Task: inverse folding
């Protein structure tokens, strides 16, 4: 199975400041078609997870442009350019390249 | 509007059985892969199973293979997860998830399964 790791696991943030989460996979997520099979999700308190980023860098519909995904192969980053209070929650990366799909342990983002 | 509504969660004894349902609406259900993902209380997300739109391809996580069966009724726009031989470690909120061209773009609200005596 592909093992997903994230850092940090806890991220206190200041509204208006940038934030960054790292995700690493134990195997390359770069497929022969040139796509990186890496998703980012956020689970806000009391809610279901929601898709933020797919294929490493594509924002899902309705996701604010302050969210961006980057990286390739085994190293990926989710960046929030200016954190807002509504961004608190747990952020997960997930690889949909190989069965079983596997998630990172999650990064809890809260306000300082 | 796309909607996924899970149901069927309950308190069940170890060794018991349960069938979860996920009613889909607002999209052409039969053309989409669907997944089940679970989340134990206070824990992270774990992928459980997926099924192709026509039901012709099915895969499971090792932890549930042989005990859980995913299926769908495209005439009823409903996804199912039949669970037998339930264990305490199966206790979780179970989410159904739509898979649309490399996007797991819609998640239901989840249904809670509690396995306890």
Result:
């Amino acid at each position: 199975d592909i093992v997903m790791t994230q850092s940090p696991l806890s991220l206190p943030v200041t509204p208006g400041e940038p934030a960054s989460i790292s995700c690493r996979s134990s195997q390359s997520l770069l497929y022969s078609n040139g796509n990186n099979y890496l998703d980012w999700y956020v689970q806000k308190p009391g809610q279901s997870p929601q898709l933020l980023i797919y294929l490493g860098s594509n924002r899902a519909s309705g996701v604010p442009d302050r969210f961006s995904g980057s990286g390739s192969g085994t190293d990926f980053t989710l960046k929030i350019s200016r954190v807002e209070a509504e961004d608190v929650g747990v952020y997960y990366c997930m690889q949909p390249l190989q069965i079983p799909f596997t998630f990172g342990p999650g990064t809890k983002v809260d306000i300082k | 509007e796309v909607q996924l509504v899970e149901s069927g969660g309950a308190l069940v004894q170890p060794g018991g059985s349960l069938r979860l349902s996920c009613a889909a609406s607002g999209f052409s259900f039969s053309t989409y892969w669907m997944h089940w993902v679970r989340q134990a209380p206070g824990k992270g997300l774990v992928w459980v199973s997926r099924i192709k739109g026509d039901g012709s391809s099915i895969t499971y996580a090792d932890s549930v293979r042989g005990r859980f069966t995913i299926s769908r009724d495209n005439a009823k726009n409903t996804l199912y997860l039949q669970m037998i031989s339930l264990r305490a470690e199966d206790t979780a909120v179970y989410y159904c998830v739509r898979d649309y061209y490399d996007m797991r773009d819609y998640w239901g609200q989840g249904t809670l399964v509690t396995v306890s005596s």
